[in-house]
Write a structure and sequence with these properties.
The protein has 166 residues and is of the alpha+beta class. It contains 3 helices and 9 strands; from the N terminus they run αααβββββββββ. The protein folds into 2 domains: 1-28; 31-165, Peptide methionine sulfoxide reductase (Metal Binding Protein, Guanine Nucleotide Exchange Factor, Chain A), CATH 2.170.150.
């Protein structure tokens, strides 16, 4: 069978992409979820019983909710945001701002020990993952394009939090 240049290029390109799949898959094989000795520890079965399927996917499997789907994105009342997994206070409405990205955004956590960070290579390059300091649940990511005074944008999954009005 004879192949033309176009067919050959497509075949070679497809073959090259197929060869890269294991490498790309290895970048995201492990959930970004923080590893460590956290104050609150539960088995996977316990987490599954206590969380909704969406909360489990975000908090325990480092998932991401679709942009613009969280009611907390539009929450404007004064109050505090807690980890949906353990009720740890993580963010204040005083630090929330409209980022336009489709997820609740904060320029800093409620206190210095509220959240922790780790490096996430899930999509092939390093990002700063933010997690609950008490249970290690995945909250979202921190980016360097936020407002003053910190210049940080804590881009947080709404399903990872609950809101308690003041």
């Amino acid at each position: 069978m004879k192949f033309g240049k176009s067919t050959r290029r497509r075949f070679i390109g497809t073959g090259s992409a197929a060869a890269l799949l294991p490498l790309l898959a290895s970048c995201g094989a492990e959930p970004a979820q923080a590893r460590g000795d956290f104050r609150i520890r539960k088995t996977e079965a316990q987490w599954r019983r206590e969380l909704t399927s969406g909360q489990f996917r975000i908090l325990r499997e480092a998932g991401t909710e679709r942009a613009f789907t969280s009611p907390l994105n539009k929450e404007k009342r004064k109050g505090v945001y807690k980890c949906a997994g353990c009720d740890n206070l993580i963010y204040s409405s005083a630090h929330k701002y409209e980022s336009g990205t489709g997820w609740p955004a904060f320029y800093q956590p409620i206190g210095s020990g509220a959240v922790g960070t780790s490096t996430d290579y899930k999509i092939g390059y390093p990002r700063t993952e933010v997690h609950c300091a008490d249970c290690g649940g995945h909250l979202g990511h921190i980016f360097g394009d936020g407002p003053r005074p910190t210049g940080k944008r804590h881009c947080i999954n709404g399903l990872a939090m609950t809101f308690a009005p003041a």
